[in-house]
Amino acid sequence: MSHNLAAKLREGTKKAHTAAENMGFVRCFLKGVVEKNSYRKLVSNFYFVYSAMEEEMERHQAHPVISKIYFPELDRKSTLEKDLYFYYGPNWREQVTPSTAAKDYVQRIRDLSNSEPELLVGHSYTRYLGDLSGGQILKKIAQRAMNLGEEKGTAFYEFQDISDEKAFKAEYRQALDELPIDEATAEKIVDEANATFDMNMKLFQELEGNLIKAVGQILFNTLTHRRERGSTELATAE
Predict the structure, then answer these.
(1) Which one of 50, 69, 86, 124 has the minimum C-beta count within 10 Å?
(2) Is 117 helix (H, G, I), strand (E, B) or coil?
(3) What is the dihedral of CA 180, 182, 55, 69, to 10 degrees?
(4) Cβ atoms of residues 144 and 151 within 8 Å
């Protein structure tokens, strides 16, 4: 049974995708302005979100719908644990807690799992297809912006068990189109994908204040340094 779900999801989430890309935090990130404290908080929030999503996907791996798009090679929990160890140290579990938006996001995943697990397809699509599509670009931006080593702090973007990302995405989209669902369920999955974008935007929104403060402090320090250097040069000239 095909409802062209992949195309429905692509077309149905275009506005939400554009809105997410225009978030201040995302725009700064894409321009190479990445503040480490804000970024590591995002990683910790992702840890709670992906942990919940992957636990529930595994729980429903025999479900007639979820089973078709259940690919453990997509799991990000272990890679996020590596990144959290890098950013917070060996006792990272004692330091990270989900933000308000992350708690709401996790609760949504748990609620769906208990009531309408087939709608988790919208979450899987939004997160994993985005990670596969833009992961390598974001990885390079993060490495340059935060002066990271080649293999440090960006494990999240590495899909070690997927050798051909383009081919895998094609396989995933085909699986979406072959899901045993009716038209009404397809529409509900698209709606949930849009809700997922909204929840992600709230995660970014929480971090924008910290990022603005950090960037402001950097600009202040730069201007102060320039003024001090200018005063020193003037004094020397006199």
Answers:
(1) 86
(2) helix
(3) 40
(4) no
Cα–Cα distance between 222 and 213 in angstroms, integer? 14
Structure tokens at 3: 């409802």
pLDDT tens track for 171-214 = 999 999 999 999 999 999 999 999 999 999 999 999 886 655 54
Residue 216 has pLDDT above 70, yes or no: no
**183 CB neighbour count, 10 Å cutoff:** 9
Residue spans of alpha helices (H) in the chain: 5-12, 14-21, 24-30, 36-59, 77-88, 100-115, 120-124, 130-145, 165-177, 183-237
Please say whether the structural domain 5-208 has been given the CATH code 1.20.910.10: yes
Question: Distance of alpha carbon 115 from its chain centroid, rounded?
Answer: 25
Burial (0-12, 13-18, 19+ Cβ within 10 Å), 187: middle
Q: Which two tokens mark 192?
A: 């949930």
For residues 21 and 192, is the Cβ–Cβ distance under 8 A?
A: no
- CA-to-CA distance for 17 and 14, rounded, in angstroms? 5
